[in-house]
Amino acid sequence: MDISKQKEVIETAKEKMEKALSHLEEELKTYRAGKANPAVFNNVIVDYYGSPTPIPQVASVTTPDAKTMLIQPWDKKMIPAIEKAIMVANIGFTPQNNGEHIRINVPPLTEERRKDLVKKVKAEGETAKISIRNARRDGVELLKKYQKDGLPEDVAKDGEAAIQKETDSFNKKVDEALAIKEKEIMTV
Predict the structure, then answer these.
(1) Which residues pair with 102 in a beta bridge?
(2) Which of 21, 84, 89, 130 maximizes the CB count within 10 A of its CB?
(3) Which helix (H) or strand (E) holds 156?
(4) Residues whose CB is less than 8 angstroms from the CB of residue 188 and which lie 6 or more positions away in sequence, other chains included
(5) Do the two domains 3-29+110-186 and 38-105 of this chain adopt the same fold?
(6) How far is residue 80's CA from residue 24's CA, in Å, rounded to a whole number?
(7) Where are the domains of the chain?
(8) Which of 94, 82, 75 is nearest to 45 (CA)?
């Protein structure tokens, strides 16, 4: 057992933490902040001939201006299903269809809706932090296992310290991402 095992454990933990952070960043994109953002439809699922599919995979979603989004399905027969999916998703939009495409006027967020979105954003952040802590725990447990199998104690302790340093760094990045999104949501 040598220091390469320690490096391997640290890298694995760091990769898991990076995945948690990038997942958080993708999730935060789906929260609208008062201006048109096509990413809000990434998690809206429509029934596409019996198979649940995200709207961006069955239609083109564009933003002609800051307060309007246009959804153009590749198959016109999908318009009613997309409208229904948007209503069911309860994301605060009322779709208007003209037979060719669906127009969404983005209403300004109410104070109550903003606070609700901030709560959801913080919950996403907490989920990311839990994933980061789990990656730390897994790494530390693996180092302890390797220590029993002959890894020197000082190498294991150095590895634990390095993993803790990564954990602190990633938690800080999560807090920064949340602060930016919260400010974006609360800005009128």
Answers:
(1) 71, 97
(2) 21
(3) helix 153-186
(4) 34, 108
(5) no
(6) 31
(7) 3-29+110-186, 38-105
(8) 82
The whole-model pTM stands at 0.74
| pLDDT computed for residue 188 by the predictor | 64
Q: Walk along the chain (188 residues) and give the pLDDT tens digit of each residue.
A: 567 888 899 999 999 999 999 999 988 887 766 677 788 888 889 988 888 989 899 999 888 887 888 999 998 888 888 898 888 887 778 888 888 899 988 877 788 888 888 998 999 999 999 999 999 999 999 999 998 988 898 988 999 999 999 999 999 999 999 999 898 888 76
Question: What CA–CA distance (Å, rounded) separates 87 from 32?
Answer: 16
What are phi and psi for residue 12, nearest 5 degrees?
-60, -45
Q: Which fold, 38-105?
A: Gyrase A; domain 2 (3.30.1360)
Give the CA radius of gyration of the chain.
22
The pair of structure tokens assigned to 103 is 């127009």
d(CA 116, CA 120): 6
CATH number of 3-29+110-186: 1.10.132.20
Region of 93 (left: φ > 0; alpha: ψ -120 to 50; beta: rest) is beta
Strand, helix or coil at 5?
helix
